[in-house]
Amino acid sequence: MAASRFHLGWFLGNSFGVHGWNQPWSGVDARDWAQPDLHIELAKALERACFDCLLLEDSVFVPDNYGGSMDFYLRRALRAPKNDPLPLVPLIAQATTHLGIVPTISTSFYPPFLLARLIATLDLMSKGRVGCNFVTSTAERAAQNFGLDAHLEHDLRYEMADEFVELATKLWSSWDDDAVVMDEKSGTFVDPAKVHAIDFKGRFFSSRGPLNTAQPPQGRPVLVQAGGSPQGKAFAARHMDIVIAALGARRHATASRGTGPRSRQLQGAVRCCPDPGRDRRGGAGARATPAGPARGRARSDARDDGQPDRHRLLDLRSRCTAG
Ligand SMILES: Cc1cc2nc3c(=O)[nH]c(=O)nc-3n(C[C@H](O)[C@H](O)[C@H](O)COP(=O)(O)O)c2cc1C
Fold this sequence. Notes:
single chain; 36% helix; binds flavin mononucleotide; 323 residues; seven-stranded parallel beta sheet; alpha/beta; 11 strands; TIM Barrel
């Protein structure tokens, strides 16, 4: 019997931020943190290892949870400084051939038309290798960076996200896939009959359309999300091709793949998925330590050496909760 196929994605936490600062084997990363080279090397290595995609985390604020101050985070380069990961996408696309590239954007703060155009452009440039990880953003500080005093309420954020993705999807199909004819004889680059206004009027967003670039090669770029609340799962079920989940134990991973009690909630989600064949669920959290567990442990101890326990916990928490 042929072995069943599976997909591999690499979720890069702290994305285009500082990796390996002040650790043994950090190399030149601290000095060159703002250069794209490390990420390009990572992408090339993932492609050699036959990974399907690289997912790039993102957040849009400097944390100050600990001690009500940014000091702790800034001194340790924890989540700041962090560059916008979107400019990495074309660079990675140029340096690779097959790897899928999935940047993260916030449905609470990005204008849908700009996002639809940006992702369509990247999908066209990469000949169909781009996806988008949609997050609603959880942090109050992120909301304050976009003019809000307080963040929108959790469920309302998912209602916005729903409409956001619905609108972006309509914009991506506002050009028929054969609209660009490039017919030199008739002097027609685009067949006007194949480009359509969408006249979208929603509760949160409106857009006349059409998009002012062509349909992305994948028709609709690969859609990804990570929220695990009932609203997050329903959002995933309605729109997503990939769901990423932080699964701490093998039994949780097994459950989320279709057996066991926890899977019952997810099966509800998969049932209303428009095309269950497209559904892909991935667990984030497994970390390969090529040098073996003992050496990995030693490295992690060396990094944490001298940090009080509460700092380690905060470090872990700020790695786990993006916003
Ligand atoms: C594996 C994983 C990756 C995530 N990546 C991001 C991210 O890059 N940026 C972000 O703002 N939130 C990120 N999140 C947070 C989720 O998008 C979501 O806001 C959070 O899980 C809470 O959603 P919920 O209320 O539906 O459970 C991630 C969550 C998980 C589990």
